[in-house]
From TrEMBL:
The protein, known as: Protein SCO1/2
Organism: Rhodovulum adriaticum
Residues where Cu cation binds: 82, 86, 170
Keywords from the named record: Copper, Disulfide bond, Metal-binding
Keyword Metal-binding listed: yes
Length: 207
């Protein structure tokens, strides 16, 4: 009986030693350089958000994420025929970028269409020019758009696709992305232009 107890205690000691050694050798998680800029800690799991994409620009050229994300970039997924949230959200994003322009921050707003059947490059060019002169409109094949949407974990679903003036349900987050780093933060619809500008400036200053 004593031998069995001794064996159990020895095994527990060995396991404890192994765990301690693992903890000592395991590198500590890197500190979040953007911690002071965040108001929503869910973005800390952003390593699974974002990634490579290949789309068609509003000028008709095939582009990749490396061509688009060359500096601080604000990405939104929507469609030009959207009757409500898309114009409002993109106007808010454009206003934030204008505020950042005044403060010397160069941020590129990007609009990725989830409606490749109707949103031609020409139509996207008209939409983005109205919003902000630096806003980039992107479309592509249905497969290319779906792949970009999956990369950013966005959602969209066409209502009554047989109807001429169909609507599309979709998510409405805006994504702040940096080259080489990737996704760093998302912004919900209730964020004001001023708050968005302040938070983006914080992220840029923390690079």
């Amino acid at each position: 009986m004593k031998r069995s107890l001794f064996a159990v205690l020895a095994l527990l000691a060995l396991l404890a030693g192994g765990v301690a050694l693992y903890l000592i050798r395991s590198p500590a998680p890197a500190p979040d350089r953007f911690a002071q800029c965040r108001t929503d800690q869910t973005a800390l799991g952003g390593s699974q958000i974002g990634g490579p994409f290949t789309l068609v620009s509003e000028t008709g050229e095939t582009v990749t994420d490396a061509d688009i994300v060359t500096g601080p970039t604000l990405i939104y997924f929507g469609y030009t025929f959207c009757p409500d949230v898309c114009p409002l959200d993109n106007t808010r994003n454009a206003q934030a970028v204008y505020l950042l322009d005044e403060r010397g921050y160069d941020v590129t707003p990007v609009f990725i269409s989830i409606d490749p059947g109707r949103d031609t490059p020409e139509l996207l060019a008209q939409f983005t020019e109205y919003m902000h002169p630096r806003m980039i409109g992107l479309t592509g094949t249905p497969e290319q758009v779906a792949a970009a949407s999956r990369a950013y974990r966005t959602f969209y679903s066409v209502q009554d696709p047989e109807e001429e003036f169909y609507l599309i349900d979709h998510s409405t987050l805006s994504y702040l992305v940096f080259p080489e780093i990737g996704f760093v933060e998302h912004f919900k619809r209730d964020v004001t232009p001023a708050d968005m500008a302040d938070r983006i400036a914080c992220f840029v200053d923390s690079l």
